[in-house]
Model the fold of this input.
Amino acid sequence: MCCLGCFGMFAPRLVFLFMWIFTHYVNRAFSTIVWPLIGIIFLPFTTLFYVLVYSVANHGPTTAGWVLVFIGFLLDLGSYSSGYRDRRRMPYYPGS
Done:
């Protein structure tokens, strides 16, 4: 059974994967395959927002675009910190 927090970390990766397969936005935002793979593993919301902002901008992200990327970074930090906080709710976890 999957919890809502698990879905919160899986959803941006799934959206990014579909965007990578069915559109050209990821290839336009990144010149190599390394950065999107690293981004989707460690910072999925940040990477997804960067690709969305880059797809709208003509010559790279603007100031408002960078604000959205920063919001994606905050979402990533929040999802990691909530997972760390909720670990004690798991039965048989050491220290719970």
User: Anything to note?
Assistant: Residues 61 and 67 are 10 Å apart (CA to CA). The two ends are 21 Å apart (CA to CA). The chain has a mean pLDDT of 84. The chain has five helices and no strands.
